[in-house]
């Protein structure tokens, strides 16, 4: 089957949301792209720009297929390949999917707690001539940027509220990160609590971690190997020296506790 025939099939499957069929045909298409020396372009490429645009579109479909199938490793690989195409700003017209896909990648980095790489990726937009204000106004990029600021500030409740309110995100794929992003935030909060406090009432922990019922709390306690006695959770820590870092962590927890009543109405 020719590259043109394979691409036509891929597009039909993708438009029908048949991601499983897409995932089966994509490896065959990538082999054809390699044969035609289209998979890895360069700034000095002599290839027909139309061929490169088609290749870029195929890779974008691959990225969206991967994220919808929750295959995060493949999604990251597709993003890496797409960056070489997005860097061809003097050769190719800008893709309408670029900001959407890179925003999804930024969300993935947030779920993984990789804030360093998150900022490196944001810096790449300088190559596209976008200012910070323009990034924050973009319907796609504004979301991970907003989430990252809230996480850095310890305003985890704002992230939770936006995710749990069934916010109308600009694309459905943003919703796929809800669970992983909340899990990442819960782990950050739990680590700060464990480092900064010897114990905490169980009900407070429930509110702090945005958990809906006590069974969820008990499951989390088991995962963290904490101890519960008479409604009080005891953490496995040593608070002999309360340095500045622990004070900062306690401030984050204190700020979160300030939202407890507000969270109670949500949960």
UniProtKB/TrEMBL annotation:
The signal peptide here is none
Q: Which InterPro entries does this chain map to? A: 26S_Psome_Rpn12 (IPR006746), CSN8_PSD8_EIF3K (IPR033464), PCI_dom (IPR000717)
The keyword Repressor is annotated on this UniProt entry: no
GO BP, sorted A to Z? proteasome-mediated ubiquitin-dependent protein catabolic process
- Keyword Glycoprotein (UniProt): no
Keywords from the UniProt entry = Proteasome
- What Pfam families does the entry give? CSN8_PSD8_EIF3K
List residues of the PCI domain: 70-251
Write out the GO cellular component annotations. Answer: cytosol; nucleus; proteasome regulatory particle, lid subcomplex
The entry assigns this protein to a family as follows:
Belongs to the proteasome subunit S14 family.
Name of this protein: PCI domain-containing protein
